[in-house]
Design a protein that fits this description.
It is a single chain. By secondary structure, the protein is an alpha/beta fold. Strand 4 and strand 5 (74-75) form a beta hairpin. The radius of gyration is 20 Å and the shape is globular. The strands form two sheets. The protein has an eight-stranded mixed beta sheet, with helices on both faces. Strands 2-1-4-5 form a four-stranded antiparallel beta sheet, covered by helices on one side. It has helices spanning 51-58, 81-84, 100-103, 110-121, 126-139, 156-168, 186-203, 214-220, 238-243, 248-255, 292-296; strands at residues 8-18, 24-35, 40-44, 66-71, 74-75, 93-96, 174-178, 206-210, 223-228, 231-237, 302-304, 307-309. It is built from eleven helices and twelve strands. The protein has a domain at 89-221: 3-Layer(aba) Sandwich (Rossmann fold). The longest helix has 18 residues, at 186-203. Helices cover 31% and strands 22% of the residues. It binds adenosine-5'-triphosphate, iron/sulfur cluster (SF4) and magnesium ion. Adenosine-5'-triphosphate is lined by residues 17, 25, 27, 45, 47-53, 273.
């Protein structure tokens, strides 16, 4: 897969939010990565590191402050988010949101919810759209009898299936899932994850998968990208990153998975994402390995084996 032309290429993507008093929050900072057709990429990192902001930029729900988002050879970031809503590529990138209850209109039946993007984004006629709803409902294991129900008449797992069916109905090439199971009961999570695994294999879509559950990321993704305070700090094949994380932050994250050896606990405060000093490593102050150099020089991403790692002192033999 790495040899295929990328479906998605992020080039130095930035999103900054003014937070008053001339101060600026750097939610996503200078972030570059690519995603091949059919590849699944996990996006991990602690709360507030910028995962949702990044996927919202890619889905063009939010405007960038800088950089390029090249999808199938075309820079989507050149177009304001509000105009992209009407662009022909709109249906090619679809997103499944965290909470199916919040993201489904309570006044739409399951059929109407799944049909809506088809009629809005692809101008499919009513009969063809209904046929597609039946097809995609079957694909996600949603019984036809439930299609006439409203969200409040469906269980959490059934609503999650409606959300996934709605995203798949328009045959996207990139499916983005932002914590798709976080709002579900544990037993339902497992079933929905099996469904995602099957769909990934059957449909050959590219997947961008945000999750706090590292075991799930390991199971579902080919590669994993780790963010810390808006920055990409490590990326590589999932098996490789989970077996041999190189960045001290990734090492601590992975050490928290039960059965992964001694837990590396971090001390110190998380730095502020507001006006971060550009020449300081964002992990400095919390990093067990930090040295003076880390406060003078921000580490660039550099290749270490099959991984890219942003740390001055990581080396290929670490961990
Ligand atoms: N509209 C906004 N205005 C100001 N700051 C924002 C806005 N949206 C996000 N942020 C900030 O950007 C940073 C990244 O937030 P984001 O929601 O992308 O994190 P996340 O990694 O998805 O976190 P979580 O794991 O909790 O979902 C946070 O500091 C957040 O407070
Ligand atoms: S550059 Fe320094 S502070 Fe940053 S992760 Fe590496 S050792 Fe830690
Ligand atoms: Mg989020």
């Amino acid at each position: 897969m790495p040899d295929a032309a990328p479906l998605l290429q992020l080039e130095r993507v930035q999103r900054r939010f003014p937070v008053g008093g001339g101060r600026v929050l750097h939610a996503v900072d200078d972030l570059s990565l690519s995603l091949a057709p059919g590849e699944s990429l996990g996006l991990v990192g602690e709360s507030g590191c910028g995962k949702s902001t990044l996927v919202r930029l890619i889905a063009r729900l939010l405007d960038t402050s800088g950089g390029r988002i090249v999808f199938d050879g075309q820079d989507l970031a050149a177009e304001p988010a509000r105009r992209f809503a009407k662009a022909p590529q709109r249906h090619e990138i679809q997103m499944v949101f965290q909470d199916p209850t919040d993201s489904l209109n309570p006044r739409f039946t399951a059929r109407e919810a799944i049909r809506e993007p088809l009629t809005l984004l692809t101008k499919t006629g009513r009969a063809a759209a209904d046929a597609r709803v039946d097809e995609v409902a079957e694909q996600v294991g949603l019984p036809a009898a439930l299609l006439s129900r409203f969200p409040h008449q469906l269980s959490g797992g059934q609503k999650a299936r409606v959300g996934i069916a709605r995203a798949l109905a328009v045959k996207p090439r990139l499916l983005i899932l932002d914590e798709p199971t976080a709002a579900l009961d544990v037993s339902v999570q497992a079933v929905v994850l099996q469904l995602l695994e099957r769909l990934r294999d059957e449909l050959g879509l590219s997947l961008l998968f945000v999750s706090h559950d590292l075991n799930v990321v390991r199971l579902l993704t080919d590669r994993v990208a780790v963010m810390y305070l808006g920055k990409l700090i490590e990326i590589g094949p999932s098996e490789q990153v989970f077996r041999s994380p190189k960045h001290p932050y990734t090492q601590s994250l992975i050490s928290a998975i039960p059965g992964q050896g001694p837990r590396i606990r971090l001390s110190g405060e998380v730095s502020s994402p507001i006006d971060p000093p550009p020449q300081v490593c964002r992990f400095h102050g919390r990093c067990p390995r930090g040295e003076d150099r880390c406060a003078r020089e921000a580490p660039p991403l550099r290749p270490l084996g099959q991984q890219l790692v942003a740390c001055h002192f990581a080396d290929a033999a670490t961990a």
